[in-house]
Amino acid sequence: MQPSLTTERLILTPRTLDDLDDCIAMDRDQEVRRHITPEFRDNFVEADYRQTLRDRISNSHYPDGLGCWTIRKRAPGQAFVGIILLLPVGDIGPETEIGWRLRKDQWGLGFATEAAKALLHHAFMELALNKILCLITPENKRSLSVARKLGFTADGTRQAWGSQFDQFTLSNL
């Protein structure tokens, strides 16, 4: 089961179908999609994407404590900020990865770092994971900066989902 997580400014809740419209609105922005898998980055057809996302949300069956969370502000109105995930790499593992995607107007405000710190605490302290990976396209400077702030270290490259990624590792040893 995925817990809800709270930070000073944010609340992270397990993503549900109620979040579908916010996720689609975020992903309409080509700059937001620039660093995601090619199938949606390059061929964004909203109706297809809506169905795929609906299926992913409805049929996600990850090990306890893993999954995708919606990030919202704790302030009144709980404005949608983005999503963050803690999933088996390639949906099969055995390694676990963290990733995030935020609305463009929420970039540069520290929300990705703040949400990731909460999720990493959950991963290491509650799930007792020893290592988390972060896969980032080399040109995604903002996410590279977040990973470094979180203490991730470069650990080679990896081909996944039709793209080349820089792989970063954070250990709880």
TrEMBL record:
InterPro entries: Acyl_CoA_acyltransferase, GNAT_dom, N-acetyltransferase. Transmembrane segments: none annotated. Keywords: Transferase. The keyword Transferase applies. Residues 10-171 form the N-acetyltransferase domain. GO terms for molecular function: acyltransferase activity, transferring groups other than amino-acyl groups. It comes from the Bacteria. The keyword Transferase applies. Signal peptide: none annotated. This is RimJ/RimL family protein N-acetyltransferase.
